[in-house]
Design goal:
single chain; alpha/beta; FAD/NAD(P)-binding domain; five-stranded parallel sheet
C-alpha cells in the first residue's frame, strides 16, 4: 500500500476480484492455482464473506440446487444432505477460503464505487469506499473481475400495496428478516410463490398458528429428495474425490436432460409435474387452481421442495395456498379481489429481488462512461469495448456454480495466453456495430424482466451468445482456443526516442 500526498491510499494488484461470495472465492482459487505468481485481492462491501448465503437469514433458507453441482468442482461436498441449509453452505464456502489462504486476501467493508480504465497504462484505477469508516481509497489492477452476481443486496423488491398503513400487524421482507420477529402462534401470510415463499411456508408452519401462501399466479413446484442416495453410496464405496466427480457428472447430466425434456415437450412435462404434485396433496385438492402455472416449465425457474415439505405442511393443515389478487390491506389482514379476507398478524412480502448489474459499479474506459445496455456480452464473461474486465454470471437453468467454474478456468487460460505472447490488453470488439441482439437473460421471471433494460445484452450466436448449456460451454471455455476474431490483444508498450537506438519501454 502506498500513499501519495493529498491523495487516497493506493494499492496495486494484478487481479482485483469484487465480491467474496461463491463466485469470488471460486475465482480466487482458480487464479492462485493457475497463476500463483500473480497478486490479487478480493473486495467485499459487506462485513462478512459468503454473499447470498450470509445475507439471507429467513427461516428455512436452503439451496435450490444440489450441492454436488452448486459446490466447487475442486472441493467435494461430503454432507449427506444434497439440498443443504444456508448454514451448511456458508460453512463450506468459508472452509474453502480458509483452507486455501483465500480469506487472507479478502477486504471486508470495501465497496467499489467506480473503476476507470487507462489504455496508456493498461490498468484500472478502482475507487473504493470503506463502508465502516467512510474512508476513500484506490486500488490499481491489470484485470478487474466482477464476482458480485446480479442481485441488489441492500434492498429487495416489494410492489406497492394499497392500505399498508392501516394494517395492525407487521410487514417484513425476507431480504431484511428481523432478528426479533416472533411468529410463534401467529397467523402468517406469505405473499409470493417463488423459491423464497416455498421455503418459508413449511419452515414457519411448525411454529406459527397457520401459514398461508398467497400467490397471484402458481409456480411449478417439484418435490425432490434432500439426500442423494447414489452420492452417499458412492462416497462409501469409492475415494471421496472419485465419488464426488461421478456424482457431479451424474447430476449435471440429469439436470440438462430434464431441462431439455421440459423445453422439447412442455405439455408432457406439465402433466408429469402435476402428477407429482397431486400425489403429494390431499385427495380432492384443487391442484389446477394452485399448482398449474399459465406458462411452460422452465420459462421461469422451477422451485424444488426437498422431501416435499411444502406439501406435507398442506396435508397436515398447518399451511394452505390461496390463488388470488390483493385488493388492499385492512386493519386485520388482506382483502382479496374475490372479496375474501385473509386475517394475519404477520405478512411476509416474498415478492422478489431487485437486480443490480456489476454491483452498481460505474465504469469508464479512457474517460468515456460505459453504458451497460449498449454493451454485448462476449463468451458470457466479458463486455465488448471494455478491456481487461470479466464478469461472473452463472446458469439460470441449472446450478449457478457450474458456469462460474468454467468462466474462471477460461479466465486463467486467457491470462496464460497473454503472458506467453506479451500482451497486456485484451478487448472484445464487435465486427458489426448493428449486430442483432437480445436480452442478456432469456428468463421470464419478474425480477429479471423488470431490470432487462439496465443490463448488457447478448447476441444471436457465439461468441456473443449467453449460453446456458454446460456441455457447449465446456467445449467453448475449456477446450477451444482462447483466440477469436472478435478478441483484440495488444500491449501498452511504446517506443521512446533517445540518442541511442529505439528502446521499447513499458509504462
Amino acid at each position: 500500500m502506498s500513499t501519495q500526498r493529498g491523495s487516497a491510499p493506493t494499492e496495486n494488484v494484478d487481479v482485483l476480484i469484487v465480491g467474496a461470495g461463491i463466485s469470488g472465492i471460486g475465482a480466487a482459487w482458480y487464479l492462485q492455482k493457475e497463476h500463483p505468481s500473480k497478486s490479487y485481492a478480493i473486495l467485499e462491501a459487506r462485513g462478512a464473506t459468503g454473499g447470498t448465503w450470509d445475507l439471507f437469514r429467513y427461516p428455512g433458507i436452503r439451496s435450490d440446487s444440489d450441492l454436488h453441482t452448486l459446490g466447487y468442482a475442486f472441493k467435494p461436498w461430503v454432507k449427506e444432505q444434497a439440498i443443504a441449509s444456508a448454514d451448511a453452505i456458508l460453512g463450506y464456502l468459508r472452509e474453502t477460503a480458509a483452507e486455501n489462504g483465500i480469506d487472507r486476501k479478502i477486504r471486508l467493508h470495501h465497496k467499489v464505487r467506480g473503476a476507470s480504465w487507462s489504455s496508456a497504462d493498461a490498468r484500472w484505477v478502482v475507487d473504493v469506499e470503506r463502508t465502516d469508516t467512510g474512508e476513500r481509497l484506490q486500488v490499481k489492477c491489470r484485470w478487474l473481475f466482477c464476482a458480485s452476481g446480479y442481485y441488489r443486496y441492500d434492498e429487495g423488491f416489494t410492489p406497492r400495496f394499497e392500505g399498508t398503513e392501516r394494517f395492525g400487524g407487521r410487514i417484513v421482507h425476507p431480504q431484511h428478516w428481523p432478528e426479533d420477529l416472533d411468529y410463534q402462534g401467529k397467523r402468517v401470510v406469505v405473499i409470493g410463490s417463488g423459491a423464497t415463499a416455498v421455503t418459508l411456508v413449511p419452515a414457519m408452519a411448525g411454529t406459527a398458528s397457520h401459514v398461508t401462501m398467497l400467490q397471484r399466479t402458481p409456480t411449478y413446484i417439484l418435490p425432490v429428495a434432500s439426500r442423494d442416495r447414489i452420492a452417499n453410496l458412492l462416497r462409501w464405496l469409492l475415494p471421496r474425490k472419485w465419488a464426488y466427480a461421478l456424482t457431479r457428472r451424474k447430476n449435471i447430466a440429469v439436470q440438462r436432460a430434464f431441462w431439455r425434456f421440459c423445453r422439447a415437450w412442455p405439455g408432457l412435462a406439465r402433466r408429469l409435474i402435476r402428477y407429482a404434485n397431486a400425489k403429494q396433496l390431499p385427495k380432492g385438492y384443487p391442484v389446477d387452481e394452485h399448482f398449474s402455472p399459465p406458462y411452460n416449465p422452465w420459462d421461469q425457474r422451477l422451485c424444488m421442495v426437498p422431501d416435499a415439505d411444502l406439501f406435507q405442511a398442506i396435508r397436515k393443515g398447518s399451511a394452505s395456498v390461496v390463488t388470488d389478487r390483493i385488493e388492499t390491506f385492512t386493519e386485520r389482514g388482506l382483502k382479496l379481489a374475490s372479496g375474501r379476507e385473509l386475517e394475519a398478524d404477520i405478512v411476509v412480502t416474498a415478492t422478489g429481488l431487485n437486480l443490480l448489474a456489476l454491483g452498481g459499479i460505474a465504469l469508464t474506459v479512457d474517460g468515456v462512461p460505459v453504458h451497460l445496455p449498449d454493451k454485448v456480452a462476449f463468451r458470457g464473461m466479458m463486455l465488448d469495448g471494455v478491456p481487461n474486465f470479466s464478469l461472473a454470471v452463472g446458469y439460470t437453468n441449472s446450478s449457478w456454480t457450474l458456469k462460474i467454474g468454467l468462466l474462471c478456468e477460461h479466465f486463467c487460460r486467457l491470462l496464460t495466453y497473454m503472458d506467453k505472447h506479451g500482451h497486456t490488453i485484451c478487448r472484445p470488439e464487435r465486427g458489426e456495430t448493428d449486430m442483432p441482439t437480445r436480452p442478456l437473460l432469456d428468463f421470464a421471471a419478474g425480477y429479471v424482466q423488470r431490470s432487462l433494460g439496465e443490463l448488457p445484452r447478448q447476441g444471436m450466436q457465439a461468441p456473443w451468445l449467453m449460453s446456458m448449456d454446460y456441455y457447449s460451454d465446456t467445449k467453448l471455455l475449456k477446450e477451444d482456443s482462447v483466440e477469436d476474431p472478435n478478441l483484440r490483444f495488444s500491449s501498452h508498450v511504446r517506443e521512446v526516442v533517445t540518442s541511442e537506438p529505439k528502446v521499447a519501454v513499458a509504462v
